[in-house]
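User: Here's a protein and a ligand (flavin-adenine dinucleotide). What would the complex look like?
Assistant: Let me lay out the input and then the predicted complex.
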Amino acid sequence: MSKPYKGFEPKWVKEAAPKDCYRSIFRWGDPDFVKYPKESLYKMMKEKFKMTDADFQQYDGSIGMEKVVLDQPSRLATEHIEALKKIVGEKYVTTEDYPRLAVAYGKTGYDAIRLRRHQIDSLPDAVVYPDTTEQVEQIVAYCTEHKIPLYVYGGGSSVTRGVEPTLGGISLDMRLRFNKVLKFNKI
Ligand SMILES: Cc1cc2nc3c(=O)[nH]c(=O)nc-3n(C[C@H](O)[C@H](O)[C@H](O)COP(=O)(O)OP(=O)(O)OC[C@H]3O[C@@H](n4cnc5c(N)ncnc54)[C@H](O)[C@@H]3O)c2cc1C
């Protein structure tokens, strides 16, 4: 938590973002942890960009609290969805809006701005949550055979647009079940 301001305090967003909204995707870390610029940094920003307190009194446009609702249905054929479900289990394949958008972008400023503007340039047709190396091997083989684009989303902190599914297809979201440290090599 930042120290209280002595002078004017901008209208920083201090509330947690609802789980299914755009902000919950582009905002970093623990939803309940609030960190905003300290007063000295705020003053420097104001000076450098020649702005006034009045410029910080309200938000300019959306801050991404809206629920994610997309108008881009999955283009993946049902037979492929069913085949993937056979590999990872029924509940570990989804074509729902929020989980698809949640893995569409990384963590560059450009990604955050696009999410804030609801600018959807890329979207996977389905998100798959594998559990084992063998499942990943089977998914890769299946996608290769059927020429389905395949992307991997690890922690999603890419700053090179490496996670972005520019051709659609499938994104493997590793966060749900590849979530254990199995070995650690101290060297
Ligand atoms: C604020 C900030 C600071 C950073 N500082 C550093 C730094 O100091 N040093 C540094 O090296 N990097 C840094 N990075 C970059 C970023 O953290 C790294 O790229 C990170 O290692 C990506 O890991 P990830 O699991 O989040 O991968 P993701 O962002 O999910 O993916 C990155 C790429 O790897 C692929 N990928 C992910 N998981 C797998 C997998 N299991 N198998 C195959 N391919 C996979 C993805 O498809 C994508 O192309 C920083 C990023 C941010 C936002």
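Summary: Residues 106-107, 151-159, 162-163, 174 surround flavin-adenine dinucleotide (CB under 6 Å).
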